[in-house]
Amino acid sequence: MNVNAFLAAYGVRILSAALYVLLAPLFGGLLAGVDRRITARMQGRKGPPLLQPFYDVAKLFEKRRVSVNKLQNFFVVLFLVFLVFTGALFFAGGDLLLFIFAFTLAALFFISAAYAANSPYSAIGAERELLQMMAYEPMVLLTAVGFYMATGSFQVGDILFAKGPAVASIPALFLGFCYVLTFKFRKSPFDLSTSHHGHQEIVKGITTEFSGSSLALIEIAHWYEATFLIAFVALFFVWGGNPWSVLLGLGVALVVYFLEILIDNTFARVKWQLAIQSAWIVAGTTGFLNLLVLTLVQGGAGWLS
Amino acid sequence: MAFLKRSPWMIHYDGSSCNGCDIEVLACLTPVYDVERFGIVNTGNPKHADIFLLTGAVNEQNREVVRNIYDQMPEPKVVVAVGICATSGGIFRECYNILGGADKVLPVDVYVPGCAARPESIIDGVVKALAVLEEKRRALPPRARRGRRAEASAQGGNA
Hints:
Chain A is mostly helical. Chain A has ten helices and no strands.
């Protein structure tokens, strides 16, 4: 394959992944800034400047880093690298299953980092993060299966060019996925392991033992994460490679994010038992029923393929 | 660039305060004063904090605790003594268990007088502390400023 053929085949994918790697921190940081503003308004406050998350991260790079164990900082770097890789896979139109496995691996590095610090607070945070993973993973996997059932492919690149929006055949899975998004965005009622850094807490859970540049990297990793989660929500609404459908998806994703903020401000944190039970019940009902109906109605994979 | 001034995170510890100053500190976070406007976050974690707000006098029981919190904060950091008790011991000064103000155990950078200190003066004190914080940042050796090679042992061995 010569260079031109290679570019013709993969140029758009590489470009979109590269744009993600470059622009995601910008988007994610702004999203966090808007989040803090809206949260403040919901509480009757004025709130910080829009660019506050960027100031926070820049500040953290100015601070000294205190680490109990050098390994913890290495794990944090791996956490960031794998989150960037996860998002790049998605934006390059890659495989949804690979995306989910890379995502899980990144989360595991974060948990390892917290365990490496060997402090009781961060160990509790790490345990709770594991519980959260148990809670949301089934739903995320079922969602990938749902995309396959709907469009006949696990490839994001193919799903973008399906005959109709995936949400038309997996609406219940969409709702279920929105439910577990609360875990991933670290919002109440499911912010068990740690809450967002703008929020006030007694002890910071999984991020307790990170300071300075390590904490800054965690924050940047969360920006990357938020960006591809928004894109994942948008994927439900995209079809036929239509740019308007991409805008529609983005709009819906931002509405979903606004609802997350609203829920964050109106719910107290729940116990871990309820978090896991409710997430599994939601996955079991929405996921199972949707897939069952899809199997019975279309009799095979992909009426949108 | 000095981003410390734009994002000071504080930790608040109640020494042997009557709770008056503590309520005023928390009042700073309410919609009326809303210190988050200045990027100030009340963190409960010394490792994330830049400013140590101490209310109440220091006593025999908590001198270790106060010292421990201070040691766990990464450089650069400042200490603000809020209220007259944290400044000098106040009316508890003569008590058998009271050591005195916060400066008996910590290098205090800003003293905020008052009984109880009003939210306005606490915010004023924090803003003054930001100038000190910036000075301290400049005084740090460049390598430490970048956050490299700063290990727990240099922080008083609190690991």
